[in-house]
Amino acid sequence: MAPKSWLYTLFSTLSVALAQTSASTSQTAASSSTSFPPTTAYTLQTDYDVIVVGGGPAGLSALSSLGRMRRRTVMFDSGEYRNAPTREMHDVIGNDGTPPAQFRALARQQISRYNSTRVIDTTIESIMPMNDAATNIPYFSAVDSSNVTYTARKVILGTGLVDVLPDVPGLGEAFGQGIWWCPWCDGYEHRDQPLGILGALPDVVGSVLETHTLYSDIIAFTNGTYTPTNEVALAARYPSWQQQLQAWNVRINNQSITSIERIQNGNDHRDNATDEQYDIFRVHFEDGSTVDRNAFITNYPTAQRSTLPAELRLAMADGKIDTTSQTGMRTNTTGVYAIGDCNNDGSTNVPHAMFSGKRAGVYVHVEMSREELNTAISKRDLQKQTERMVGDEMETLWKRVLDMYR
Ligand SMILES: Cc1cc2nc3c(=O)[nH]c(=O)nc-3n(C[C@H](O)[C@H](O)[C@H](O)COP(=O)(O)OP(=O)(O)OC[C@H]3O[C@@H](n4cnc5c(N)ncnc54)[C@H](O)[C@@H]3O)c2cc1C
Question: Which of 74, 349, 358 to mutate to test the pocket of ligand 1 (most atoms within 8 A of CB)?
Answer without folding.
Answer: 349
